[in-house]
User: Fold this.
Amino acid sequence: MDYAMVRLIFGIWPLLFGMFLLMVGNGLQGTLIGVRASIEGFSTLQLSAVTSAYFLGFLGGSIAAPGIISRVGHVRVFAALASFISATLILYPVIPIFWAWVVLRILIGFCFSGVYVTAESWLNNSATNNTRGQILSLYIIVQMAGLVSGQALLNIGAPEGYLLFIAASVLVSVSFAPILLSVSPGPAFEETKKMSFKSLYEASPLGCIGMFILGGVFSAQFGMSAIYGAQIGLSLKEISIFVSSIFVGGLCLQYPIGWLSDHIDRRLLIIYVSILGLISFFTALIFSQYFFILLASGFFLGGVSNPLYSLLIAYTNDYLEPEDMTAASGGMIFIGGLGAVLGPLFSGGLMSVLGPIGFWVSLVFFLSCIALYASYRITQRQSLYSAEEDQYDAISYANIGFSSTQVAGEVAQDFYVDNIEDINDDKIGN
Assistant:
């Protein structure tokens, strides 16, 4: 790490610390909602609807936030949305009614998405071509660390009471203090051009279909995993450890799989990663009574889904012109968001019919679809690797998470384009 990077980190630490606290609060409430809803007697289908509502709001926020920011500014948007989040968290235990929770989940998803857009815009404004990849990686680490820390806080109080909701509210309230007190001015927000879904699909059918299906996997791991744990009788401590294993897996396997993607056909890697997940999930189906097997399966759930997200975007980039990549990021994230809205309804439907084991059955189905469709696409398009393998240069990409918004996607795309330019410059130099 050079001196310039150290200076940059010191300059953005209020933002990173604020995001860490925000993710702690989000991780806590995401798991807590599933546990408390089970206690309140919500049916499995109602639980899935509550989970879908969050992602519906998140999708709406990612669309609306840029326009709101351009009108009133980053600081006002960040403070207003964070305040709404804090207030919403307090209301959950006050009105434990299904339809009220659906409305509250839509609202809180919208607000979290808007806050992420704001924070990621600040990060993008602070990064340079030389630091963009490092900053994005650091941001992902902070996100994952916050989500894992949120699971640990589940054990400080009873889910039947108010304490855990108050704790989440306090964390969110405190999170925006470092940012609002920072001397760093808010960046100017510029909306990027859009790319039609038709053009995006024509460029990469696998990227689009895979991202849609993967959205269901993400929404299941974020919202339905705690519900599954509660239904099979796990204690609160065991649920927190199980959910933590998902986020830890996502962090640990992101970079090894990213390295592999630079050395083998990305379509083959998508298939291999999907099969790895299938093996893990089948194991959980058969041996779900053993907690350590659940932890291992949770680890691979996160370890498979998070790298696949970045991998599908990178694979799509392989078939795009550099000038189209930033515009494509918004479309890809929107497609994933649609899948995330519909995914919990599918998982919840299976769980209502098959019982808790329907959670793993739905994941097996999702990953099987990705693996089979990727296998089909291999027969439809010549590999960039096999065409002129000795002349092909794999383009390294930046890792992003599913909770990232279009802004983080654009930062990752800029990193990808920078690497293309570096490779072209090297070829010219040689």
Remarks:
- Residues 3-429 form a domain with the Growth Hormone; Chain: A; fold (CATH 1.20.1250.20).
